[in-house]
Amino acid sequence: MPEADPIVFEAAAFAARAHQHQLRKDGKTPYVSHVFRVCLVVRHVFGFDEPEMLATALLHDTIEDTATDCDDVVERFGPVVAGWVAVLTKDMRLPHDEREAAYIAALAQSPWPVKVCKLADVYDNLTDCAHFRPEGRRRTCHKSRTYIDAVRDGLPEKGQAALARVEAKLAEVEAGLGAA
Fold first, then answer.
1. Within 10 A of 127 (CB to CB), how many other CB atoms are there?
2. What is the predicted pLDDT for the residue at 131?
3. Which pLDDT belongs to residue 177?
4. Which residue of the set 5, 49, 65, 174 is catalytic?
5. For 6-179, CATH number?
6. Mind spelling out the 3-state secondary structure of 107-143?
7. Which of 33, 36, 100, 150 could make a disulfide contact with 107, Cβ separation 3.0–4.6 Å?
8. pLDDT score for 130
């Protein structure tokens, strides 16, 4: 196994500090567990070990959900990681529908490593929604389908395999809703 790149360790520590005191929707789980799981999905479920991708997975919510700005990410992790994190960041200044449309358009035009990180985010959210009420799971499935459709084009073969895994996870959650 190759030696871990220091950028991954620094990104994990940075994300932990940035998301300190935040909780997931269940009100119990530390939010940072989500970004750690997204990184684990990129690495261990999808099989990508590129340090910049792993750092992006760890940092994907820092600009959107914390006091971190893009300049902080550029300074610490360089322009590639910062640019990828920026694509994965919704512009919270925009009204909801406009924000979603801009985000989906940006995802569709993004480099394939960003698309793989988004697929890992979707995979984790689908995994994490098991305890939601049926309506919450339906909302998660609908958003997941929208994001999957946005990133499906331009993926390399290994990215296509990740897409297939996420689509299988979505089908599994949707099948569970049929009984709910």
1. 14
2. 83
3. 87
4. 65
5. 1.10.3210.10
6. HHHCCHHHHHHHHHHHHHHHHHHHHCCHHHHHHHHHH
7. 150
8. 84
In contact, 35 and 60? CB cutoff 8 Å: yes
Provide the residue ranges of all domains of the chain, joining segments of one domain with +. 6-179
Return contacts of 166-169, CB within 8 angstroms, 24+ apart: 166/119, 166/122, 166/123, 166/126, 169/123, 169/126, 169/127
Q: Report the candidate in 120, 104, 105, 1 with the shortest Cα–Cα distance to residue 59.
A: 120
65 is catalytic: yes
Q: What is the dihedral of CA 29, 171, 163, 44, to 10 degrees?
A: 40
Helical segments of 45-87, H only: 51-59, 62-65, 70-87
Task: Single out the catalytic residue among 5, 49, 50, 64.
Answer: 64
Q: What is the mean pLDDT of each run of 10 residues along the chain (180 residues)?
A: 81 97 90 97 96 98 95 97 98 96 98 98 95 92 97 96 98 84
Amino acid at 144: S
